[in-house]
Amino acid sequence: MTYHPATGPIGAEGRYWDALIEGRLELPRCASCGTWHWPAVWRCGACGSWDHEWVEQPIEGSVFTYTRTHHGFGGTEAFAKPFSTLVVALRTVPIRLVGVLDPDDAALKIGAPVTGAIGRTRFGDADVPALRWRLA
Amino acid sequence: MSISLSGRTAAVGVGYRQYKRGTAPVPERGVLVRAIVDACEDAGFDPAEVDGFVSYGDDKNEPVRLMPDLGTKELNWSAQVWGGGGGGIAGAFGLAASAILTGQARAVIVFRALVEGNSGRLSAAVMAHHLNDHMVSAGILAPAQVCAMRAQRMFEHHGVPQELCAELVRASYYHGSRNPEAVAYGKDFDLDEYRRSRIIAEPFHLFDCSRENDGAGAILLVSAEMARDLRKKPVKLLSVAQGTQAGYGDLLENDAEALYPTAGFRAIRDRLFGIAGLTPADIDVVQLYENFSAQGIASLIDHGFCTYENVAELVRFENLIAPGGKLPVNTSGGNLAHGFVHGFVTAVEAVRCLRGESPNPVPDARTCLLAGGPGAPTISSAIFGVD
Question: What's the pLDDT tens digit per position in B115-147?
Fold first, then answer.
């Protein structure tokens, strides 16, 4: 693991960040029973296995929910207000990921299909790998 | 062997000091000591005899440091419920009861103190408890945003009418406007002002959000036997439950689909009512922790007072107000209109309303449900009652 988090210790998802930096979305699946885990785990709570495989996924899905933030909360300086944060249900695996809608779009609604790209969010002195979504 | 806690401990003293945020006259521990002594005086109990303390929400006031001011003779037990938000507020009473019933402590103060000059903004502290790189990458820096996303799903996908938030907020302000302790005292609630207020994070406007106060609260819990000899009518702890369930919690927004828009209380509802031997229909009044209006509504649904389908029949202004409403809620104004010291006012009012000391009395109320902080990864609720 090479990724140094901006906010504090991370869990079992070091590979996720390393892959994002290299331009890929990779997510973990239990090598024994095939369960997808997010948040990432060290041990599969379903079967007890300690082995996981990280599998590249397309960055696409649909809007599970969202909020459009108007207030200038400290730490959101990277985004012009208002901005929309999405929770996206990925199309290919039963995992949801968060990210900002860029550009914002008045047609935003739950269920809308989206595609994503990998960007960076400036947070303090750090550039945090980030997903940026666009209505498909 | 299983020991039932139902009815075997009682809240006997209440202290609550509240100030506008940033204006407490003394630092945080000083405000807390005052509130604890208030609670003891309310009960007719010597503060030096308090031998146990419990808090929640990452409170920073380690009980050992209170001993010189209180004259504490013996500190026999102290603890805190896990979690950065208000999810542990009712669970703190459960811990206190466990300590009392197992002989670890005789008289326990449940407390929470929050003074901005010492502990900073609560919203930032709660978020610091949960923050990670996933969240900051997506611009999520405040509890309001997380709760907003869950509320959006409850409204848009599950069909709960967003207009119901105004009913709950209006009822809170109605009660608060009649409470001399409340931030909303003497103020009329203006529905147009509510609707025109600035948007914080859609769907929340300013008035959908609890706003922080400086202050401290303390409630003294003792055994039901000891309570009989003290000054005020004992308010018995009939039930308490805390926890969470698989598919809910700190899961990077990956909660099970059905649980995502809830406030988390489905995990404890059956245990909560089961311990008390009661049902939602037996509850006379609710003190509802509402960090945000929508989470208050989700909490009422979770606890079984209504469903997605019939929530609009219950959450109506006239049903929610004392004295005659079908289910009076937040009779002092709650977090929204009484004041917000990490939700403690809801516990204070749970005791006061059952003693008949509420600014908006519910005649003959015998049972009060304290619905703890909604949307926290680990939540808790309690039921109090009087004979």
Answer: 988 888 877 787 778 899 999 999 999 999 999
Report CB contact under 8 Å: A82, B199: yes
Are B15 and B217 within 8 A, CB to CB? yes
Q: How confident is the model at residue B89 (pLDDT cuts 50, 70, 90)?
A: very high
Domains, chain A, ranges and CATH? 7-57 (no CATH), 58-136 (2.40.50)
ipTM of the complex: 0.97
Question: Which chain A residues have a beta carbon less than 8 Å from that of B153?
Answer: 64-65, 110
Contact yes or no for A98 and B136 at CB 8 A: no
Helix (H) or strand (E) holding B192: helix B191-196
Q: What does the alpha-carbon distance between residue B376 and residue B89 come to, in Å, rounded to a whole number?
A: 11
Spatial separation of the C-alpha atoms in residues B117 and B121, rounded to whole Å: 9
Q: Which of A100, A110, A130 sits opposite B153 (nearest CB)?
A: A110
Cβ pair B380, B296 in contact under 8 A: no
Of B133, B199, B254, the CB nearest to A128: B133
Q: Given the structure tokens 């009060």, which residue do they identify?
A: B368
Distance from CA of A3 to the nearest CA of B (A): 11
